[in-house]
Amino acid sequence: MSAAELNSEFEALQSQYQALAERNLALDLTRGKPGTEQVALSDALDGILEGDYTAANGTDVRNYGGIDGLAEAKALFSTVLGTPDNEIVIGGNSSLTLMYTVVDFALSVGLRGPESAWGNSDEVKFLCPVPGYDRHFAICEHLGIEMIPVPMDENGPLMDEVEKRVSADPAIKGIWCVPRFSNPTGCVYSDDTIERLAKLGNIAGDDFIVMYDNAYAVHTINAAAPALANLREYCVKHGTESSVFQFGSTSKVTFAGAGVAFMSSSAANLSAFKEHLGFQSIGPDKVNQLRHVKLLQSAAGIAAHMEKHAELLRPRFAAVLATLESELGGTGMGEWLSPEGGYFISFNTRPGLAREVVKLAADIGVALTPAGATYPYGNDPEDSNIRLAPSYPSLEDVQATAEAFVLCVKLASIRQALR
Amino acid sequence: MSAAELNSEFEALQSQYQALAERNLALDLTRGKPGTEQVALSDALDGILEGDYTAANGTDVRNYGGIDGLAEAKALFSTVLGTPDNEIVIGGNSSLTLMYTVVDFALSVGLRGPESAWGNSDEVKFLCPVPGYDRHFAICEHLGIEMIPVPMDENGPLMDEVEKRVSADPAIKGIWCVPRFSNPTGCVYSDDTIERLAKLGNIAGDDFIVMYDNAYAVHTINAAAPALANLREYCVKHGTESSVFQFGSTSKVTFAGAGVAFMSSSAANLSAFKEHLGFQSIGPDKVNQLRHVKLLQSAAGIAAHMEKHAELLRPRFAAVLATLESELGGTGMGEWLSPEGGYFISFNTRPGLAREVVKLAADIGVALTPAGATYPYGNDPEDSNIRLAPSYPSLEDVQATAEAFVLCVKLASIRQALR
């Protein structure tokens, strides 16, 4: 476009933006929060026990005990993580709590005794594939762990760089991963990436851990979505079972705030971890575990349930992707991926515009995840990545938000071109 | 008794003991665990929402959010702690988790910023009124906090000693309290004790806290049980609201393993604590909070519900107390108190016999709380205190256990006299 054309386009966009501002929008695409229809898919949970509070082995789930969960809950949720049902611990309603507790345990108490506590060293570092999940980064920052960003591509973190850094720096004690439908890019780690993650335990020290947050393990939107290789099988092959902690939950399967979280690692790690947990709790809520087993029943039951979620999510993702394609496709004003599952669309503006786009949107009542949130310390060096989370609003609001969003992207891009 | 009489009594007791041994008993009085009939009092919880998952303010309790709990849960449970409903945080299913998290927060992060973290000092100490609760002591031991035992009488901890120690040693950062129906003595702290606890905040440093575990706040067995003075009112009087954290739960009101925990402190403390919690969880299970509000409804509802518990507990406590009185009363072989509420009977053998009695009982299939468990580091200097927990077994088993117990006490006592 010529300067005159740019100016004229800019004015047209500005008047569209003014018109939107006058509509007093109140839209919110900030968090990966299931929609109301999605959580309602599990409304049968309350009352599903029909007065029978007895687990398969006779345990009264109402009473104390059971630090690691009911056997039937272990059997069910080990299918999600692809691990044996004797290598799983069931938690409360939050996998974030399990992750925090693992990192805190490794830091302060030591995975393999007091000598192994990361906190014995002055420096503790984590690799953080970017863009990534802000709550992972927040755990590190809160606990004083230095974060080193590592780029990702469509196969996951760039493993050459990961291996190089882990080999070179013994202060690196872990790496955060969201292997399937990664938050936010939606990529599914390739088989090669996963085998190389499993092999890190042989490159790094004995106290290095892969924090493998499989939050979207069964959260397929398109039936053709790629499967995820089995990390534990690679660990068995390479003898590194103790270098990995896997996490999952039903937060985006049943009730976001009242689901069941779970984790898996080697028997030795879990034994040490359960002892630590025992100082904090007499055990998680077994009644809710039993409710979940009754509702979901089996791996096939989970898959059928997730298909109902997919039906609700598909049009929302399609609305955003179609709007991005029709309004920004081929313009060079943005790049994005079409995720096959998960909760996010990761959008990259031209360098230097993410904060401006988020601000423009906020000023007309459209809340987006803060720019930079997908990077450690909130620092996106390119100021380019914006995470879109279309699950919660109504389809109508998702459409309206997508339209407002592309308008803000265009406005910022053309303003930049005019500078 | 003469030596001959002692010998003859000893032989009689030994043959009774042998007879019991042949009965292959499997009795357990170890933990303060509600009985099956007690937890069944709340069976209406599952299904009580009848499909309505909406809180009073319109919050969808199924979804994410609400780090500090539902307003109606705050209003209900603040009546248990006797605090304003804007000075309470609702947790998950375990008050132990809240307590651990508070101590860990004060130690590692700092109640009033990083400068205030106890861990900045080489020495961190807690006062532990004895006999006390083993899980409190375990938190300290796990987190490397040195424990100093302080004696108790029927009015609670000996406050002269508490004040003297707190004044003299700035490394003392806290004190554990179970103020009503104390675990295990059953005593109810006197008004004077509670006012002096409230005043500790003015004697100690800014970072000293009273860990006030009001686990049995509404757990009256006898209607004439003494009330507990309101700690917070004394704190307001003395300007020490930030020196106190109060805890409670419905573990012994509804379901032991699937209840709701809560805590109270000053607005400033709660604000800092909630920020810390936010790194670990997106919020506790609000569905279960709403269930509890529907079941219990009000302070009067809680009281009516607790009276049903009392009806189940009364005969169990009476059976133990009657057996102790009829078999050991006036013999000098033991001392105990008759609690008016709570879950325990605290029994003191003659010095040096607690371990022996617990071993004798274990050998004939009667499990008791390990001797020493009621003291920091498991070290009862008199080897005298045994905690009896009669809530869980059937009345018949409680009676059988009490009879086996007094036999073991007599056997150990007479063996000691013969040495």
UniProtKB/TrEMBL annotation, chains A, B:
InterPro entries of this UniProt entry? Answer: AspAT_Ic, PyrdxlP-dep_Trfase, PyrdxlP-dep_Trfase_major, PyrdxlP-dep_Trfase_small
Q: Domain of life here? A: Bacteria
Signal peptide residue numbers: none
What SUPFAM superfamilies would the database entry show? Answer: PLP-dependent transferases (SSF53383)
GO MF terms here are: L-aspartate:2-oxoglutarate aminotransferase activity
Q: Which UniProt keywords apply?
A: Aminotransferase, Transferase
**Protein known as:** Aminotransferase class I/II-fold pyridoxal phosphate-dependent enzyme
Report the source organism. Halioglobus maricola
